[in-house]
Design brief:
Blueprint: E1 8-9, H1 15-25, E2 27-30, H2 36-51, E3 66-69, H3 72-75, H4 79-83, H5 86-96, E4 100-104, E5 107-111, E6 115-125, E7 153-159, E8 171-172, E9 191-192, E10 200-204, E11 209-210, E12 220-229, H6 238-241, H7 244-248, H8 252-257, E13 270-272, E14 275-277
Parallel strand pairs: 1-2
Antiparallel strand pairs: 2-10, 3-6, 4-5, 6-12, 7-10, 7-12, 8-9, 8-11, 13-14
The structure holds 2-oxoglutaric acid and fe (ii) ion (FE2).
2-oxoglutaric acid binds near residues 123, 170, 210, 211 and 222.
Length: about 300
């Protein structure tokens, strides 16, 4: 029996149709989502960023034949062409902004959650890179399935170069968004995302996926960003409430408790020199050690 694959839709599809398919399969491919000018701009800006980005340090998750760059809204004005793409934004809002009913006193209020950008990353997979372990990106929130009964993240993977099975097009397990947290993903259940540059794969945080093995003779370049539920953050924004000079005088434990921290699930990292590092190092005096955080992290 052949494996289930993701559906490919034209960019003229309605958000409603795409959302139905995402809820059915966990993701969908949309052809030529962004225009040629945006694609060319992102290609050029990412090329500059990757030229100064070393390979990742480990093969546990980030890939030692993979370059990763971040802070993409600082690096490219063309990010707006992706982030404000009406179809992607409508799909993200349609999935994430499911209303929540609460009581305040005896009055019932319906809250529409806000959404915000949760992550940006350029990912360039080179020949020789093996496949990434399959995972759910909502692991950063330690999301529980099916208990949470809603989605926390709607992610887009833009093909900056063509994605093929041969060059490491993102591996996805269709339908895996419905699995509980006990079920282990198996490599043989995953299918590669094949799409031309400018097309995207839109998927939800609960779908198992991972970078594919590149056994072609050239790099595969992808750009990912996510819209997340904006309530998954501090109520009072501590980053903007406490000046850096005040923070620097505090014990490290307090700095971490104010949010200057990131753990094994990567939540809160910043990208530096190809690594995802803990923001707490920015508060340390002098030369800053930049040990990578994440699943392979060796220090707290
Ligand atoms: O590069 C890819 O295709 C997917 C990468 C990924 O899923 C990740 O790094 O979380
Ligand atoms: Fe991922």
């Amino acid at each position: 029996m052949s494996k289930p694959t993701l559906t490919t839709l034209p960019n003229t599809t309605s958000a409603g149709e795409a959302i139905d398919i995402i809820f059915r399969d966990g993701g969908v491919i949309i052809e030529n989502l962004i225009d040629e000018q945006t694609l060319a701009g992102l290609q050029a800006d990412l090329e500059v960023a990757f030229a100064e980005t070393p390979y990742g340090e480990d093969d546990d998750f980030v890939g030692s034949r993979t370059r990763r760059t971040g802070a993409l809204f600082a690096r490219s004005r063309h990010m707006l062409g992706l982030a404000l793409n009406p179809l992607y934004l409508e799909i993200a809002r349609g999935i994430l902004q499911a209303p929540v009913d609460i009581w305040i006193g005896q009055t019932r209020h319906t809250i529409i959650p806000d959404i915000q950008v949760g992550v940006t990353q350029g990912i360039q997979i080179y020949p020789g890179q093996g496949s990434q372990p399959l995972h759910r990106d909502d692991m950063v929130f330690l999301w529980r399935h099916p208990e949470y009964k809603r989605e926390g993240r709607v992610q887009v993977m833009l093909a900056v170069s063509d994605f093929t099975e041969e060059n490491g097009g993102t591996l996805v397990i269709p339908g895996s968004h419905r699995w509980d947290d006990e079920r282990m993903p198996r490599d043989e259940e995953a299918v590669a995302t094949a799409m031309t540059a400018g097309s995207v794969m839109i998927f939800i945080g609960s779908t198992y996926h991972g970078g594919g093995m590149n056994h072609s003779d050239g790099p595969r370049t992808g750009l990912t960003m996510a819209y997340d539920l904006a309530n998954l953050r501090q109520e009072e924004n501590q980053y903007l409430s406490v000046p850096l000079d005040t923070l620097r005088e505090m014990p490290e434990e307090m700095q971490r408790l104010l949010g200057w921290d990131s753990g094994k699930n990567y939540m809160g990292y910043i990208q530096r020199d190809g690594k995802m590092i803990n923001p707490q190092v920015l508060l340390q005096p002098g030369e800053q050690p930049t040990a990578a955080v994440g699943l392979a992290m060796r220090t707290a």
